[in-house]
Amino acid sequence: MGAGKTTLGKALARAMGLTFVDLDWYIEERLHRTVSELFAERGEAGFRELERTMLHETGEFENVVISTGGGAPCFFDNVDYMNAHGLTVFLDVHPDILFRRLRVAKQQRPLLQQKNDDELRAFIASALFERDVFYRKARFRFDGSRLESRAQISESVRSLRTLLGV
After folding, report:
1. Percentage of residues in the chain with pLDDT exceeding 90?
2. Domain regions of the chain by residue span
3. Beta strands of the chain (E only): which ranges?
């Protein structure tokens, strides 16, 4: 959350002439419910099953850049599936930068709305610690800290394309 997956994914897809798919948006469009509603209705386990199904569905698409939610690689065999079906990139962002980004966007993120600054910092640290073992399985690691301006995004796209060899 807040790493820039959608920002960089959209820009990369545009630069390469590919379609961009945000997995959470895809799920919402297919089920006509928000991710928050689906979590509330199905619980996390039910949502993660649905997310896996939709990941496998979008994984069959051709010529796409897919941005998953931050939790998607951490359940079932999702990260292994992603590695088998495409080039996987972990956007590595320092916790202080994530805090700054998420602090200004708290109202758009139901999980964060009621958190004060200390709770938000603790949430970020905990999530990164718990998910690191899965994120490290991505084929590529990319610094996502420089996505604050169009120039930085453009430079990041060029750097990422070089890293990926595309």
Report:
1. 90
2. 5-150
3. 19-22, 64-67, 89-92, 140-143
